[in-house]
Amino acid sequence: MSDKKMNVESFNLDHTRVKAPYVRLADIKTGENGDRIHKYDLRICQPNREHMEMPALHSLEHLMAELSRNHSDKVVDISPMGCQTGFYVAMINHDDYDDVLRLIESTLQDVLSATEVPACNEVQCGWAASHSLEGAQQLARQLLDKRNEWTQVFA
């Protein structure tokens, strides 16, 4: 690993030292008008050991993006990591870590009771054939089963 500090915060994280699942504050950006974006790293899978399969990840993204907004109007975005090991959760003007944990937990509970994947059609989704409600629910269940581990980032 290079000693040079990278521009992307997660590139500076030693992925060999973390222990998934966890939720950590990854970055804070302040806009020119004082708004603050808090970006959380919601790590589901152990980096370089496991990953989410795309249909399950894709459906979990749709479900979390839609359902999280039922719990907070501070959600800016929930987006998957390209490495398929987790998501970024971006919140605006909201820095209450415990509340973010509750938001994620409540949203995952909603995923478990969902009967369909929102916007899972060719009009609203760019790859509508790649979805798995069952896979998303399995990921949510696995993450909720380890809820007591979410605050411990490093092994």
TrEMBL record:
It is an enzyme of class 4 (lyase). Involved in the synthesis of autoinducer 2 (AI-2) which is secreted by bacteria and is used to communicate both the cell density and the metabolic potential of the environment. The regulation of gene expression in response to changes in cell density is called quorum sensing. Catalyzes the transformation of S-ribosylhomocysteine (RHC) to homocysteine (HC) and 4,5-dihydroxy-2,3-pentadione (DPD). It catalyses: S-(5-deoxy-D-ribos-5-yl)-L-homocysteine = (S)-4,5-dihydroxypentane-2,3-dione + L-homocysteine. It comes from the Bacteria. Its EC number is 4.4.1.21. GO terms for molecular function: iron ion binding; S-ribosylhomocysteine lyase activity. PANTHER family: S-RIBOSYLHOMOCYSTEINE LYASE (PTHR35799:SF1). This is S-ribosylhomocysteine lyase.
